[in-house]
Design brief:
Distance between the termini: 44 Å
Structural class: mainly alpha
Helix content: over 70%
Largest sheet: none
Number of helices: 2
Number of domains: 1
CATH class: Mainly Alpha
Radius of gyration: 37 Å
CATH topology: Helix Hairpins
Strand content: under 5%
Shape: rod-shaped
CATH architecture: Orthogonal Bundle
């Protein structure tokens, strides 16, 4: 009978941590993609607003309206800067998540290797035990036959 692997609770814990790290990395990737989509939208909006400003400026506009356009474009530029910083933080988070996943995967594989070694060692012990039992039975049978031959003579 194969003995249970004594580190099985640790194997289970390592698998749970690996699953959690994979889920977290997925969420971090999604956050990064969302941040990138927001930046792309901001850049497109700024480009469109800049084009609208240039069109209005060609047709002539009062200084107050021009100042409003310029102020709004500056606010858009600030939002672009902030969103770019958010993307950099998200990228750093994704890299940290990747590192964590690689670490948990390595640990999980180490435990899996230990478990496989344990199973192989237990199978070898079981095979030796079975061989010993078979050898004993064969020996008894041979002794019994020898005793029968002696009894016949």
């Amino acid at each position: 009978m194969i003995k249970p692997f004594s580190l099985q609770p640790l194997v289970h814990l390592a698998q749970q941590k690996n699953d959690a790290a994979a889920k977290k990395l997925g969420q971090l990737n999604q956050q990064q993609q969302s941040a990138q989509a927001k930046l792309d939208a901001l850049l497109q909006y700024r480009k469109d607003y800049q084009a609208q400003f240039q069109e209005a400026a060609r047709n002539g506009m009062p200084p107050a309206e021009m100042k409003n356009f310029q102020d709004f474009i500056e606010r858009l530029d600030q939002a672009v800067k902030q969103q770019t910083a958010a993307i950099e933080r998200a990228k750093a988070g994704v890299q940290t998540g990747r590192n964590e996943l690689m670490d948990t995967t390595r640990k999980m594989r180490s435990f899996d290797t230990l478990e496989q070694r344990h199973i192989e060692a237990e199978k070898k012990l079981e095979a030796k035990s079975e061989q010993r039992t078979q050898d004993e039975l064969t020996g008894r049978f041979a002794a019994h036959r020898a005793a029968e031959k002696d009894a016949e003579q």
